[in-house]
Amino acid sequence: MRIAVKYCGGCNPSYRREEIEEVLRKYFQVSYADSADLIVCISGCKKGCAAERARGEFLHFDEKIKEEEIVRKVKEKLLLK
Q: Which of 17, 20, 23, 58 could, after both became Cys, cross-link 39 (CB 3.0–4.6 A)?
């Protein structure tokens, strides 16, 4: 399974968005492409810019979240495929 990461523009981040990508890289193979099994959209605030134009299977994060919760949500989404 391939995971792509899509960031928002970072105009008003309320947390360190890179932490989510660091967790993804630790537990999953991450690819920077639109053609993936799952696109993980990472927004810095509740506006959700990163997910606005997401197509296909995607998961959206817009706030700081615990490492185990990130892993659980991604695994859950991948199992649904």
A: 58
Which among 46, 45, 4 has a CA at the least distance from the CA of 21? 4
Q: Encoding tokens for residue 80? A: 């649904």
Q: How far apart are CA 53 and CA 21, in angstroms?
A: 19
DSSP state of 43: -
Would you kindly state where each structural domain of the chain is located, as residue ranges?
3-79
> Exposed, middle or buried: residue 13 (CB in 10 Å: 0-12, 13-18, 19+)?
middle
CB contact at 8 A, 2 and 29: yes
Q: Positive or negative, the Cα torsion across 46, 48, 50, 54?
A: positive
**24 SS3 class:** helix
pTM exceeding the 0.85 threshold for the entire prediction: yes
